[in-house]
C-alpha cells in the first residue's frame, strides 16, 4: 500500500510548541503538509508569552526539508490563527485543536477566574478556531477537524472539575460539528490522548510517563485527518501505541408502567432499577433520531395496551444445554436412535437443538400473560376452557442460539367467533440478545364456550393447515411413547396439571392424564427430520399442525409422510386406537436430505413391515423373558417387487431386534414380501399356507420358525 501523504494540504496545529502538538506538526510536515505551528509559548501554566517554542518547531521542520510557519496567537483569537494559514499558504484543510492548559484544584476551591480561563482555552479556543476555519472548509468542500478531549472529561478526575467539564464540552461540540459538516465533506473527530507533555509530566508515575510518547499517538490523529479516512463524529482514545473507539451506550432500560393511563411511582422506579442500569443489552445509538426511535419502540408495549386484539407483551426466556436436552428426551429422542445423540449430548460434534424447542419461549410468554383470559370482550376465559388448537413455528435466519437469552413478544392478532367457542390467534416473535428475529410462532387456541360474542367467524391471520395428498404415504415412521412421557415433557415448561394429575384429568373429562399436543408434535417433527433431513436441524424451516385428539402416554405414534418438493405433509395417528391425532400438517424444509445410504437405518423406503418390527422391538423390550424363551437368531429378508428391500434381525437369544443382519449366522432365514408380512402379522395369512404357496421362504431351522407365531400374533392383535 502506498504511504498516506498530505501533499498540498495545509494543517493548523494549536499548542504545537511541544508535546503532542509538536509531534503532530512534525509528522504532518514529514508527509508533505504545510504546517501552521501555533503556540503561545510559556511554561506548563500557559501564562508566559515567549515565541521560542513555536519557532523551534518551525526550524526543525525546515531543517528536515518541510514547510511551516509559526503563529503566536491565543486560540481565543482563533480567526487570527486561521488568517496566518491563509496569508502564508492560501488555504487550510486540517485543524488540530490541541492547545490546552491545566489549573488543578479541588472543586470547592475553583475560582471563577480559573474556571473561565480553562474554559476559554479549551472550549472557547477550539470553538473560535474551528468557527474561523469552517467557512473555508465549506467553500472547498473539504475539511478535517480534531478536538482534543481527555480521560478526566470522560471519567472525571479529582481536582479537575473545570478541566474535565471543558474537555467533555468538546465532545458535544465535535458531535454537532460532525453533523453540520458532513454534507460538505467536513469530518470532525475527538482524540483522547494520554501523552507525556508539559501538561502531564508531574502528574504521572515516571515509568508510565516514559511510555507515553506523543509520537505513538500522532499517527492516529494523522490517519483521522487523511482524505481516505471516512471516520466522523467518533471519539478515539489512544496512548502508548494503542488506540480504540470510545462510545456512549444506552441500556435497553425498562418500562416503568404498563398502560398509558398508569402513573409512574417512585417505587416503580426503585423496583425496576436493576433493569434500568443493566447495560448487558446496551446499544450504541448513532444519532438523536436513533435514540428517539429506540425510545419510541421501548414504549410500544405501553402504547398498544394489553386488552383484546393488538396488545403486546414480552418476556425473557433463559435456557441452556440441559434444557434443550431435557426437551429432546421429552419428545422421544434416544441415544439408541441413529443420529440422535446430537440432541442429547452437549459435547457431540454437531450438538443440535430440535427446532420445535423454540416453541417453548413462545409458550412461556403466553402462559405468563393474562391477555388470552381477556381476549373475548366481556368474558373471563379460564385455563380449563382453553385447548391448543393449532400451532405454527417458522425459524428465521441461520442457526438460532443454542443457549442464553431469548426475548419473545406476544400479541393477539385475531379473535374469531366460532359459535361453540372462540378461536384466539396469538402471534409470538422471538428475538436473540441482539434483537434479531429468531422464530415466529403462531398459536391458535380454542376457548370452549366463549363464542357467540358477535365477532367475525373467519379470519385472515392464521397460517392455514394443508390437506394431506390422497396417495399412499411416501414414508412412515412409528415410535412408542413412554408411560412417563408427559411426566418428562412437562419439565420443559408446560406444567398444566391436566398432563400429570389424575384428578385434574378426570375433571377435564379424560380417564387418565393426557400427553401434551406439543409433545406429539415434537415427536412427529423429529421423525420427519429423521426421514427427510438426515436430522440436519438447519434444514428445518417451518411446521404447521392441527391437534385433533389427545394421546395417552404409552401409546404408539405413527407418522405418515408425503414429500412434495421441500414440503413434507404429515399425519400422526395413534397405532393402538387407529385415531388421527395431528392433521392438516406439514413441515417445510430448506432442502431434503436423504439419510446416509451407508447407515443401516437410512433406507427410508416406505415399508409397512417397519411399523410391525418397531412393535416387536417394543414387545421384546417390555418382556425380554418371553423372547428368550423362544431363543434363536432369525433373519427376516423383506422383499418389495421381488427384490430384497430390508433386513431385520430378531436375536431372541439376546432379546434384541434391529434392522440389518446379525453378527453371526442366523439359525433361520425367512424371506417374505412386505405386503405378505403385514398379512401374516394381521393374521389374514396363515404361515403354513404362505409357506406352501412359496410366499414365505424359510431356510435353516424351519421348526424354530414355527415358535415365532405367538410373538407375531400378539402384535397382530394390537394393530
Ligand atoms: C481549575 O480550577 C482550579 C481552581 O480554581 C485551578 O487551580 C486549576 O488550575 C484549574 N484547572 C485547570 C485545568 O486549569
Ligand atoms: C460523518 O460523515 C459521514 C460521511 O458523510 C456520515 O456517514 C456520518 O453519518 C457522519 N457522522 C455524523 C455523526 O454526522
Ligand atoms: C417495573 O415496573 C413495572 C410497572 O410498575 C412493574 O409492573 C414491574 O413489576 C417492575 N419490574 C420489576 C422487575 O420490578
Ligand atoms: C427491552 O425493554 C423492553 C421494554 O422497554 C422490554 O419489553 C424488552 O424485553 C427489553 N429487552 C431486553 C432484551 O431486555
Ligand atoms: C442357533 O445357532 C447356534 C449356532 O450358530 C447354535 O449354537 C444354537 O443352539 C442355535 N439355536 C437354536 C435355538 O437352535
Ligand atoms: C432375500 O431375498 C432376495 C429376493 O428373493 C434374494 O435375492 C436374496 O438372496 C435373499 N437374501 C437372503 C439373505 O436370503
Ligand atoms: C432403499 O431400498 C430400496 C430397495 O432395496 C432401494 O431400491 C432404494 O434405492 C433404497 N434407498 C436408499 C435411499 O438407499
TrEMBL record:
Sequence segments annotated as region (Disordered): 459-479
Record has Lipid metabolism as a keyword: yes
Compartmental location: Peroxisome
Gene Ontology molecular function, alphabetical: 3-hydroxyacyl-CoA dehydratase activity; isomerase activity; oxidoreductase activity
A UniProt-annotated Pfam family: adh_short
Superkingdom of the source species: Eukaryota
Swiss-Prot/TrEMBL keywords: Fatty acid metabolism, Isomerase, Lipid metabolism, Lyase, Oxidoreductase, Peroxisome
GO biological process terms, semicolon-separated: fatty acid metabolic process
Keyword Lyase: yes
PANTHER family given in the database record: DEHYDROGENASES, SHORT CHAIN, SCP2 DOMAIN-CONTAINING PROTEIN
Name assigned to this protein: Peroxisomal multifunctional enzyme type 2
Amino acid at each position: 500500500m502506498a504511504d498516506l501523504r498530505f501533499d498540498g494540504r495545509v494543517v493548523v496545529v494549536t499548542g504545537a510548541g511541544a508535546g503532542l502538538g509538536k509531534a503532530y506538526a512534525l509528522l504532518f510536515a514529514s508527509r508533505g503538509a504545510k504546517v501552521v505551528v501555533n503556540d503561545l509559548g510559556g511554561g506548563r501554566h500557559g501564562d508566559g508569552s515567549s515565541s521560542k517554542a513555536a519557532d523551534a518547531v518551525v526550524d526543525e521542520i525546515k531543517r528536515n526539508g518541510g514547510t511551516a510557519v509559526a503563529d503566536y496567537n491565543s486560540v481565543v483569537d482563533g480567526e487570527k490563527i486561521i488568517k496566518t494559514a491563509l496569508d502564508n499558504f492560501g488555504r487550510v484543510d486540517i485543524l488540530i485543536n490541541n492547545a490546552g492548559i491545566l489549573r488543578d484544584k479541588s472543586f470547592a476551591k475553583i475560582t471563577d477566574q480559573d474556571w473561565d480561563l480553562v474554559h476559554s482555552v479549551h472550549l472557547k479556543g477550539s470553538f473560535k478556531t474551528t468557527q474561523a476555519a469552517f467557512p473555508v472548509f465549506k467553500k472547498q468542500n473539504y475539511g478535517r477537524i480534531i478536538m482534543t478531549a481527555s480521560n478526566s472529561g470522560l471519567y472525571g478526575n479529582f481536582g479537575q472539575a473545570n478541566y474535565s467539564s471543558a474537555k467533555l464540552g468538546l465532545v458535544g461540540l465535535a458531535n454537532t460539528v460532525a453533523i453540520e459538516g458532513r454534507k460538505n465533506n467536513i469530518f470532525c473527530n475527538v482524540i483522547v490522548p494520554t501523552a507525556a507533555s508539559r501538561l502531564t509530566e508531574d502528574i504521572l508515575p515516571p515509568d508510565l510517563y516514559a511510555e507515553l510518547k506523543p509520537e505513538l499517538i500522532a499517527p492516529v490523529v494523522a490517519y483521522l485527518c487523511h482524505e481516505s479516512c471516512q471516520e466522523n463524529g467518533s471519539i478515539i482514545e489512544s496512548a502508548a501505541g494503542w488506540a480504540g473507539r470510545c462510545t456512549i451506550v444506552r441500556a435497553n432500560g425498562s418500562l416503568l408502567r404498563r398502560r398509558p393511563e398508569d402513573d409512574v411511582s417512585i417505587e416503580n422506579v426503585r423496583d425496576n432499577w436493576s433493569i434500568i442500569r443493566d447495560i448487558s443489552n446496551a446499544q450504541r445509538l448513532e444519532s438523536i433520531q436513533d435514540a428517539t426511535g429506540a425510545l419510541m419502540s421501548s414504549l410500544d408495549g405501553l402504547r398498544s395496551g394489553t386488552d383484546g386484539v393488538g396488545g403486546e407483551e414480552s418476556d425473557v426466556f433463559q435456557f441452556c444445554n440441559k434444557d434443550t436436552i431435557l426437551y429432546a428426551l421429552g419428545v422421544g429422542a434416544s441415544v439408541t436412535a441413529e443420529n440422535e445423540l446430537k440432541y442429547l449430548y452437549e459435547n457431540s460434534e454437531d450438538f443440535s437443538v430440535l427446532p420445535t424447542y423454540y416453541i417453548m419461549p413462545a409458550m412461556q410468554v403466553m402462559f405468563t400473560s393474562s391477555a388470552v383470559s381477556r381476549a373475548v370482550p366481556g368474558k373471563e376465559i379460564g385455563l380449563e376452557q382453553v385447548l391448543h388448537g393449532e400451532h405454527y413455528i417458522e425459524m428465521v435466519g441461520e442457526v438460532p442460539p443454542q443457549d442464553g437469552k431469548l426475548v419473545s413478544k406476544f400479541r393477539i392478532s385475531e379473535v374469531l367467533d366460532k359459535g361453540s367457542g372462540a378461536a384466539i390467534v396469538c402471534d409470538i416473535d422471538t428475538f436473540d440478545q441482539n434483537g434479531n428475529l429468531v422464530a415466529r410462532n403462531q398459536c391458535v387456541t380454542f376457548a370452549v364456550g366463549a363464542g357467540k360474542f358477535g365477532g367475525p367467524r373467519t379470519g385472515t391471520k392464521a397460517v392455514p393447515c394443508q390437506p394431506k395428498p390422497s396417495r399412499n404415504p411416501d414414508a412412515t415412521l412409528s415410535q412408542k411413547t413412554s408411560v412417563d412421557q408427559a411426566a418428562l415433557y412437562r419439565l420443559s415448561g408446560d406444567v398444566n396439571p391436566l398432563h400429570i394429575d389424575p384428578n385434574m384429568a378426570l375433571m377435564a373429562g379424560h380417564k387418565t392424564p393426557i400427553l401434551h399436543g406439543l409433545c406429539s408434535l415434537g415427536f412427529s417433527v423429529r421423525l420427519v427430520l429423521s426421514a427427510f433431513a438426515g436430522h440436519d436441524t438447519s434444514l428445518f424451516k417451518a411446521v404447521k399442525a392441527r391437534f385433533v385428539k389427545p394421546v395417552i402416554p404409552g401409546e404408539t405414534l405413527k407418522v405418515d409422510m408425503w414429500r412434495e418438493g421441500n414440503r413434507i405433509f404429515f399425519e400422526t395417528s395413534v397405532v393402538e386406537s387407529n385415531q388421527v391425532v395431528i392433521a392438516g400438517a406439514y413441515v417445510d424444509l430448506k432442502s431434503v436430505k436423504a439419510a446416509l445410504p451407508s447407515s443401516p437405518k437410512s433406507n427410508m423406503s416406505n415399508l409397512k413391515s417397519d411399523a410391525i418390527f418397531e412393535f416387536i422391538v417394543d414387545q421384546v423390550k417390555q418382556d425380554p423373558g418371553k423372547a428368550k424363551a423362544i431363543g434363536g437368531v432369525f433373519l427376516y429378508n423383506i422383499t418389495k417387487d421381488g427384490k430384497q428391500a430390508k433386513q431385520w434381525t430378531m436375536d431372541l437369544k439376546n432379546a434384541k431386534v434391529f434392522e440389518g443382519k446379525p453378527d453371526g449366522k442366523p439359525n433361520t432365514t425367512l424371506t417374505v414380501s412386505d405386503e405378505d408380512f403385514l398379512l401374516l402379522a394381521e393374521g389374514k395369512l396363515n404361515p403354513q399356507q404362505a409357506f406352501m404357496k412359496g410366499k414365505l421362504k424359510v431356510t435353516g431351522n424351519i421348526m424354530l420358525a414355527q415358535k415365532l407365531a405367538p410373538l407375531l400374533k400378539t402384535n397382530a392383535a394390537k394393530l
